[in-house]
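Need residues for this backbone.
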């Protein structure tokens, strides 16, 4: 009985890193979701499987694929990793040449199978499936209006709002989708499929990434270019903010659902942390961009030390850049255990107190007796940074100087990143010096916003703030947001 009580105090879901905005063993921002689409390929389901596998880092909670054979949908969704949800026989049953797929990390929607995407519906013109990455800021308001008008929702996912708006419209699919997309506010990348069509849309600010590729005569779409590389597709271009692509028997039609040009604001955290280093955003490779961030950090905040190390995996590129700029050797000062992400065996309370030793280990022979520069991508609550700094000290590091490749994270995200309540963000209430003391570092420096914009590259110099959304750092949101109940916002997927 005592073990059961202990388990319940450690987490509320089926495994310890499941959940929404709450601190688990590792205090990091949670990935959003990933989408993948295929139009007119005989092996659409298998392509979607491999594409989702490449996007697994964007969501580890559930996965799903829906395929159209023209006459009907074949789909499967499940809780867990892509390789756990699908097998050879299941994929063979998903026949058709149009497919959309989704990997999910829930934040605002409940963690259960009914919310796994793609969401699939029957409506007046046949079958409808929807998959999205992002967040609809005004979803609750629209949902309440629809429910008052008689709509019955099957899930707690905000994505269902768009399906209802389309289904209730008397217009054809494309015009109904345009009207629906005009009504919603937020950051999103949508894939909408019927029996014979695929619609692809990006929000008016381009907050969430979405790319288009070509594989033979087929078109493919993905949240990141690494998924296109995985299946051998040629990258064509990014989907533009406010753009709506329609693919049907007559080919690809490029359209827009809003002519009003809005500020381009791609999520800066995609560059800093979320996207895979082999992906490209706005023509800029992520590994190269992160190396430039490290180099910029060195220019802004040099400190004499014996070695530079990065917190695996997202900060390794930046650590290499810092080392190259300063001439201080880069060393593998920490090792990541890649097999602790989803475990049904709870970590002991002692392990939680000790910190990140389940997932990270300091290389004692490397850091012992050395002055260490530790590069990381962000500090959220500060708990993980403190644990890592103390872990390096326990391994014999004489000094630990922390350098962060982002400005202080002070504000919640309303566009698809799982962030805690503003009051739990350490930078919202503490100065840099107070944070330094809190994490037990010898020195601490956050990248300047100007340095981040310069390091990212690939943007138009005419774009406001380099075409990035920096709201989590500077409170300048590209859309209107409602701060009431802000802790509930995350990824509506």
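Answer:
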């Amino acid at each position: 009985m005592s073990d059961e009580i202990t388990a319940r105090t450690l987490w509320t879901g089926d495994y310890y890193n499941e959940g929404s905005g709450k601190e688990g063993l590792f205090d990091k921002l949670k990935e959003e979701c990933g989408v993948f689409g295929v139009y007119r390929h005989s092996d659409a389901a298998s392509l979607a499987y491999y594409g989702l596998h490449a996007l697994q880092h964007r969501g580890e909670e559930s996965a799903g694929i829906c395929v159209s054979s023209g006459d009907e949908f074949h789909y499967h969704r499940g809780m867990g990793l892509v390789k756990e949800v699908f097998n050879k026989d299941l994929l063979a049953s998903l026949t058709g040449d149009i497919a959309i797929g989704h990997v999910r990390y829930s934040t605002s929607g409940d963690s259960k199978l009914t919310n796994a995407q793609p969401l699939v519906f029957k409506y007046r013109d046949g079958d409808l499936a929807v998959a999205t990455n992002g967040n609809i800021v005004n979803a609750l308001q629209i949902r309440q209006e629809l429910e008052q008008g008689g709509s019955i929702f099957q899930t707690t996912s905000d994505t269902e709002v768009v399906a209802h708006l389309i289904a209730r419209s008397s217009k054809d699919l494309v015009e109904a989708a345009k009207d629906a997309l005009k009504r919603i506010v937020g950051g999103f990348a949508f894939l909408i499929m019927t029996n014979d069509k695929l619609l692809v849309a990006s929000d008016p600010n381009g907050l969430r990434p979405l790319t288009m590729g070509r594989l033979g005569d087929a078109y493919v779409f993905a949240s990141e270019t690494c998924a296109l590389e995985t299946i051998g597709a040629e990258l064509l271009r990014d989907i533009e903010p406010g753009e709506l692509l329609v693919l049907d028997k007559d080919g690809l039609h490029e359209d827009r659902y809003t002519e009003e040009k809005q500020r381009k604001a791609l999520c800066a955290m995609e560059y800093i942390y979320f996207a895979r280093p082999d992906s490209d955003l706005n023509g800029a490779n992520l590994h190269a961009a992160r190396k430039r961030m490290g180099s910029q950090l060195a220019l802004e905040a040099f400190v004499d030390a014996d070695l530079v190390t990065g917190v695996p995996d997202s900060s390794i590129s930046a650590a290499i850049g810092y080392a190259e700029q300063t001439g201080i050797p880069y060393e593998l000062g920490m090792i990541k255990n890649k097999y602790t992400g989803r475990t049904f065996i709870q970590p002991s309370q002692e392990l939680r107190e000790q910190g990140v030793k389940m997932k990270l280990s300091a290389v004692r022979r490397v850091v012992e007796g050395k002055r260490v520069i530790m590069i990381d991508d962000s500090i959220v609550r500060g708990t993980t940074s403190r644990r890592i700094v103390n872990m390096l000290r326990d391994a014999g590091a004489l000094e630990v100087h922390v350098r962060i490749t982002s400005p202080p994270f002070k504000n919640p995200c309303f566009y698809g990143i799982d962030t805690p309540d503003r009051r739990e963000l350490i930078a919202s209430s503490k100065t840099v010096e107070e944070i330094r003391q809190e994490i037990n570092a010898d020195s601490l420096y956050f990248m300047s916003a100007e340095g981040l914009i310069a390091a990212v590259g690939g943007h138009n110099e005419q774009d406001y703030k380099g075409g990035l959304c920096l709201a989590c750092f500077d409170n300048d949101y590209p859309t209107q947001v409602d701060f009431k109940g802000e802790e509930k916002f995350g990824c509506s997927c």
